[in-house]
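Give me the 3D structure for protein acetyllysine N-acetyltransferase.
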Amino acid sequence: MTIKRLSEWLQTSTNTVILTGAGMSTESGIPDFRSASGWWKNIDPRAVATTEALTENYSLFHEFYKMRLENLEKAAPHEGHQILADWEQRGIVSLVATQNVDGFHQLAGSQKVEELHGSIRSIRCHRCQQAASMEHFLSKASCSHCGGKLRPNVVLFGESLPQISWHTSMEAIKKAELVLVIGTSLEVYPVNQLPMMTSGKTVYINLDMSQHATPFDLKIEGKIKEVLQQLEV
Ligand code: APR
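Predicted structure for protein acetyllysine N-acetyltransferase (233 residues):
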């Protein structure tokens, strides 16, 4: 019943925006953060995903992101990513705003993607901001320009979000007729404020239904790939 209703909403909406989180990529073999098998179940995020971690304990910081990059090499977008890219091709989806840093939406063919938490696939120097190569980062080299520490272009806890991505996503969601929030616990500010900013209908697709801070017009409990495959648009 809920699948049928969402299919109808997708067919009639003239402006649908998608907001995704780590749950979008678990079926590609990439752990999320807060479910039972998530990264934060046995790693303290403050020890690896903050600027303090970067400056105070670079070895642990570097090991964490190197491991995630190696994990990424062995993974690929799944059919759910491809369905969202197909919906963009067909004019059904106007934007994918994602908290994910894996680049899977783009790899699957989505072109209108805003990476609200940056990307793990590009590297810069933390001190002089100069771009650096992935090889240099993986080999734990220092910045060839200033000798500073190299880091992925992800948003670490406490850092501000990329302003253009944030405003583009916020404006799109405000104007959307339909917002699908997919595979996110909505635990992290300020992205968790976005769903409430729309005047359109809101839908939550997730395995874990325990988040109650954000009211939704429709909630679908299930695995993302299966739910997206069942939708008839
Ligand atoms: N199908 C449906 N839901 C899923 C699936 C799946 N296959 N796999 C995981 N989920 C759900 C989990 O139940 C969980 O509620 O996706 C959600 C993922 O939540 P988090 O792990 O908190 O990930 P996310 O919301 O993206 O985290 C936001 O926190 O650590 C930071 O920067 C990091 O971008 C990340 C941010």
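Residues 21-23, 26-27, 32-35, 38, 45, 99, 117, 183-185, 187-188, 206-208, 223-224 surround adenosine-5-diphosphoribose (CB under 6 Å). Let me know if you want a second pass.
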